[in-house]
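Researcher: Here's a chain I'd like modeled. Treat it as a single chain, no partners, no ligands.
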Amino acid sequence: MSPGALTRAVVARAFLASGALTLASCSGGSPSAPDTPGPAEDFIEAAGARLHCVLDLPNGAGRFPGVVIGQGSGRATTSDGAGYVPFLNARGYAVLRYDKRGVGRSTGVYRGVSAANSESQVAELASDMSAALDFLAAKPQIDAERLGLLGTSQAGWIMIAAAQRNPRTRFLVAVTGSVEPVGTNIFYESLRDTPIDEAYARLAGYSGPRGYDPAPVLAALDVPSLWLFGTEDRLVPTRDCLRILDRLREDGARVESVVYPGAIHSLVGVDFWPDVDPFLARAGRPDLR
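Model: Modeled as a single isolated chain. Structure tokens:
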């Protein structure tokens, strides 16, 4: 998926609306502006890459629950998750953001995700996110028993795979993430200029390559997840995703969903935090597992 300008728009809007927040380098250095390394810049050690990161701490002494931000598609850096920081910090969560491998200050090789390579690429990006969870858990300011994932668009697939890989994951929140197979979703995205009802009709007849399928993994996860959708999303097929989640929920999966009428990809202009708050209050507590 390629949220592009839509994702950047919602990030910018959220960031401009934010109040004061405490920003630090990954090693907990002094405050700094978003994407400006602190005096003790740090990196996450991942398989075949070192990932540049920024840790955003709320006010207070800690130990804080924490969230690792998952990125959408493309050459995403720490700036892509900046809009979520003030909202999560205000709720007492530390936030870890990192440049994708091969992007920004991160080493390694950047590769996009396609239907053909999605099995390996989702696994690689999930491995990076898992390394970020372990990195965050090791920080003395962090409560390692209260860690979760939050991200937009392509991050939905990556967070599911990371939660499968890393038992530190206590919850995940997907903002217009997809639970369709990668190839199916890419086909829907290619119909973005087609009237939406026609696009769904054509999607129903799709028989091309599927690639990575997150639904079986999500069905097996003992991790609560919240999925936020817009009815007018032209990059993620909301209607089909809701049917998949409904089926998974009926089979006992710990999935929840909220749909915003008229909203587009990345939920531009939507205040979804009132729906996220009660989920975090439940899912962010280790005693409820």
